[in-house]
Amino acid sequence: MKQPDIEKLRRFSLGSGLVLITYFVAIVKPSSAVSFPFLGLTFNIMNPKYISIGFILASIYGLIRYSLYGMIIERSPSKTRKQLLSGKLVKDAYEINVQSKDDVDDVLKKLEYAFPSISKDGGGIEVNEFIAPLFKEQRVNISYRIRYKPTRRTNVLAICHDIDYTAPIWVNLVALMIAAYRLFAA
């Protein structure tokens, strides 16, 4: 099964949550019969009080799909950051040893994904080549050591990135709580 585009899921989920919040905070009450033209045809909605159910279902659908694909199946920035911070800490910097140049590129992509602007901050990223002896065969292997030190600014930006990345989830949860309050408190 092909995985959906996370950005499209994010937009749908965030949009449905914001529409639901707007609908219930503004206390929209449609009149008894609503009609609207679409493609030259006039559509009549005979029970407009059920429009709110459609908004609620869209919000739940967006919440579940984004939670599944954006947070569970896809690796979120916070999960990637935790994995990268589990590396070896040497002199206030984290180190990761990799075997190939392709692995270096993969780690650098993960660092940019998990820590926004880490390469632009003062801590930065340092990649060094070193020779690691292989004792069994008595030959040498060239490895790469990646050192990175997230600064305070990088950590603050990472937290803001996490809040933005998880916005479709918490916006929909807030929207559903507002909808539940408006429906059951009335």
Description of the structure:
- It is a single chain.
- With 186 residues, the protein is α+β, with helices and mostly antiparallel strands.
- The protein has six helices and six strands, in the order αββααββαββαα.
- It folds into two domains: 90 residues, no CATH class; 85 residues, Endonuclease I-creI (Roll), CATH 3.10.28.
- The two termini are 43 Å apart.
- The mean pLDDT is 81.
User: Would you tell me the overall average pLDDT?
Assistant: 81
Number of domains: 2
Please indicate the percent range of residues in DSSP E strands (runs of 2 or more). 15-25%
Termini separation (Å)? Answer: 43 Å
Number of strands: 6
H/E series: HEEHHEEHEEHH
Q: Roughly how many Å is the radius of gyration?
A: 25 Å
The helix content is: 40-55%
Instruction: Count up the helices.
Output: 6
Spans of at least 5 consecutive residues whose pLDDT stays below 50 are: none
Describe the sheet with the most strands: 4 strands, antiparallel
The rough form would be described as: elongated
> Which strand order does the major sheet show?
3-4-6-5
Helix and strand content put the structural class at alpha+beta
